[in-house]
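Re: export button greyed out
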Amino acid sequence: MPDFTPTTDLSDAWPQAQVAAPVFRDFGGRVRFQGEAVTLRVSDNNPLVRQTLQTPGEGRVLVVDGGGSLNCALLGGNLGIFGVENGWAGVIVHGCVRDTAELRGLDLGIRALAAHPRRSGKREEGERDVPLTFAGVTVRPGDRVVADEDGWLVLGADLVPEPKL
Ligand SMILES: O=C([O-])CC(=O)C(=O)O
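Workaround output, generated via the alternate export path:
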């Protein structure tokens, strides 16, 4: 990926960068990804996740706060394909995903807490474009999210562009 600065270097250059607690697993076919955050808060229901991944991603990262729920999966193979087809760089789920063998084959960054076989509820509820706080970070819409082999972090929109490293 062109112009990719590792999270380690970003963290060194910007001590104020928010680093997510290292509780996320990598499920995607793309280990390194970055982009502006689009935010969703849902609770064991994923229609908003589906709807959002069906809109143009334009290289952004969908950040889903599922409240850390270990009850069901908020994203699976079909939603992952929507993400690829619509140009999302990645999806970060504070919750679970499923179809992990399929997700691994997608050109999409995917982080989540765990795998879970059960599908989520189908109620159209949740909030979009709200600040999210979980795993020690606050993600606001438009913040830059950067993920790689070492974890992921959040750079507030005010920190863009990058400093000279
Ligand atoms: O539809 C769902 O709830 C999640 C899923 O399994 C998929 O994306 O394929």
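The domain at 23-158 is CATH 3.50.30.40 (Glucose Oxidase; domain 1). The button fix ships in the next patch.
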